[in-house]
Fold this protein.
Amino acid sequence: MIVLGIETSCDETAAAVVDSDRHVLGEALLSQAEEHRPYGGVVPEIAARSHLDHIDRLVATAMDQAGIGYDDLDGVAVTAGPGLIGGLIVGVMCAKAIALAAGKPFLAVNHLEGHALSVRLVEDVEFPYLLLLISGGHCQLVIVEEVGRYHRLGTTLDDAAGEAFDKTAKVLGLGYPGGPAVEAKAHKGDAGRFDLPRPLAGREGCDFSFSGLKTAVRRIADGFPPDETRPQDVADLCAGFQAAVGDVLVDRCRHAIKPFRLCSEGGKSLVFAGGVAANEYLCGRLEMLAGEEGLLLFYPPPQLCTDNAAMIAWAGMERLQRDMTDGLDFAPRPRWPLG
Ligand code: KG4
Ligand code: ZN
């Protein structure tokens, strides 16, 4: 089977074609990062207009690369939420038009489900698994029981970890998106130099909080001199921040493993997904945790961690294989919790 997937929920316009043997047959992605960079974050109106300008061409490119026509598709999948409503409408209308014109099933995919299942496009990970899903807008621990069956153990009480990376980068003048920039600086930094909080670490439950860490970073950065000692200060603060995030993620996952084992007999995998899972240091920390806890850690390659259409096409494929198709009256949802 072959599915076309479309992603327009935030600041990436993307289209991809995947088959049921897990091949990505065609893929086209346009990041709007440059358009949003002057504002230090995503501007919804700019995002929606840019999706509209580029989606048709990107779909055509992905289809050409795959060497197929619309008649060859078995389904059309699209991110129908959660996300910025203007962008969601662009993607959903495009996907519905193709599905209607070609007479193919329409699949409304939850963006978080796209991240949650992305690893299965590249690895043989069996259900159930424990998922740590961390991106710019989301930060959750979820038991993935089956396609469409998700049990959330915890979420963030304030900011998502990706947002904390982006804000750290912003106060240090490292640009947007912040994650990759902070990770690069952290390589040359001393993680032990600054004393930073580990919010909620050691507490009961599986929730997250990053606003205290963000504030602590800002307070320290405000004291930096604007001279030649600054590059080392920046590197040390990035390393300290990243280590604090690592400690928090490890602690929260440790708390989630007990309920995971109770609810999911036979579950033996920990999956790290979402944009922040592109961070090598954090993957290393979770690898150690998984080893200690007798679990196997899986995470997708970086290009499948950050927003992309292959994961949406793949989630659509998993739904199509289970006859979980949607009607063309499905309305995009700016808010849509997993499960
Ligand atoms: O999944 P994603 O592309 O978009 C959302 O659904 O939010 O995640 C984007 C987030 C941004 O906050 C970005 O800074 C973060 O993922 N990110 C990283 C890295 N690469 C991307 N965070 C830490 N380290 C990275 N290498
Ligand atoms: Zn995402």
Notes: The mean pLDDT is 96. The CA atoms of residues 184 and 235 lie 9 Å apart. The chain has eleven helices and ten strands.
